[in-house]
């Protein structure tokens, strides 16, 4: 399992509320899962960047694939 690093970030009230809504909906279990999902999307959309191993040791490959599909669907809805 890749090493994990704890960091502290500051968010706007809007983003903090969005994270809480995602957790309350059941799509994600923790704020860290929401942030990791967003970072994975950013990696995928950033040309020329290697996508790092995103294994977090808590989710199976199928769960990650479903989460990514939901993320893409949510982005498509907002576009």
Automatic annotation (TrEMBL):
**Manganese keyword on record:** no
Q: Which domain of life is it from?
A: Bacteria
**What are the entry keywords?**
Toxin-antitoxin system
Where is composition skewed (Basic and acidic residues) in this entry? 68-79
What's one GO BP annotation on this UniProt entry? Answer: regulation of DNA-templated transcription
Do you know which Gene3D superfamilies this protein is assigned to?
Antitoxin ParD1-like (6.10.10.120)
Q: Which Pfam families match?
A: ParD_antitoxin
Region listing for Disordered, in residue ranges = 46-79
Similarity remark: Belongs to the ParD antitoxin family.
The protein in question is named Putative addiction module antidote protein, CopG/Arc/MetJ family
User: Which source organism does the UniProt entry give?
Assistant: Paraburkholderia graminis (strain ATCC 700544 / DSM 17151 / LMG 18924 / NCIMB 13744 / C4D1M)
